[in-house]
Amino acid sequence: MTDIKAALRAQHIETPSWAYGNSGTRFKVFAQKGVPRDPYEKLADAAQVHAYTGIAPTVALHIPWDKVDDYADLARHARELGVGIGAINSNVFQDDDYMLGSVTNPSARVRRKATDHLLECVDIMDATGSDTLKLWFSDGINYPGQDDIRARQDRLAESLAEVYDRLGEGQRFLLEYKLFEPAFYATDVPDWGTAYAHCVKLGPKAQVVVDTGHHAPGTNIEFIVAFLLREGKLGGFDFNSRFYADDDLMVGAADPFQLFRIMFEVVRGGGLDPEAGVAFMLDQCHNIEPKIPGQIRSVMNVQEATAKALLVDREALAAAQSEGDVLGANAVFMDAYNTDVRPLLAELREESGLAPDPMTAYAKSGYFEKIAAERVGGNQAGWGA
Ligand code: LRH
Ligand code: MN
User: Fold this and answer.
1) Residue 209 alpha carbon, nearest atom of ligand 1
2) Could you tell me the pTM of the whole model?
């Protein structure tokens, strides 16, 4: 049990700055009381999640949503709050120029503009001390014939190569794929294979990020995880869950069993070891639920799935698998999944000087009442879409 506790204590989940701002759908973005007005306040809220869970010490930024005059000062502010700046997310999906694509756009001027933004994000990594750039491209086409699918891959590869060459010592980028939306016929980085192929061509500083909401229904995501880990190309996760499409709901909320299966392949493939360099990031939107408790609950969901994955009796599983004992092997797997790990995690938190139940402790802290009273006026943060 001590190794399991040690692994759980070393767990590191990164929360996204944009989860603390207002978000919604094309139908409505509902504003909530106490929402941050700037990246400094977003970091303060993220620090609450770390304060009560103990395992969320970094915050991913999104540019320009988190644009500030002095990124080094923002990083200093984060340190004062007891957190750090994690991945820097580029944004080449909200400018009118990108209607027909960003780095894949037929126009060389637009491609230059998009690539320059990606390079600016590396400058921000230098200023914040972040080692990870996360690249997601909304690029794609809506109608057959609209553009040359192969030529767009050439343009994408050219831009990625320029960004790759700009990366400094200890820096990397993670390429994110997504099946569809906002493009509805062909997306230029639609699946893990496309992302993997580009990353293999580029080199060791390029890895793939698996956003759990970006697959076709029925996709076996844990297979993709096992494969990428084996290849040393799993750079990280954008955790969330969904019932239908890219719903960005709380991780583990829609399908806790899938999250367990994914975390088992992470554990089995050595991905939980800090030196494996797998970034466990959340990428979610709390459209109707309170933001900070939503993040705390999400971190706990990943922690519970991880604890269950660590409890799989690997020896018994390997024995049953080698004997072809199908039901026996499945039973070993399900025993771990059906184990209630909440008492273990409550104990672990108390041993680390934390309250056994982060949700109750946060609710009792009065922090929400404080920010709801203080954060009046100004512009609440959001996606700025
Ligand atoms: C795209 C995505 C990407 C982010 C955005 C907030 O759907 O998953 O990771 O840039 O959400
Ligand atoms: Mn994502």
Assistant:
1) 9
2) 0.98
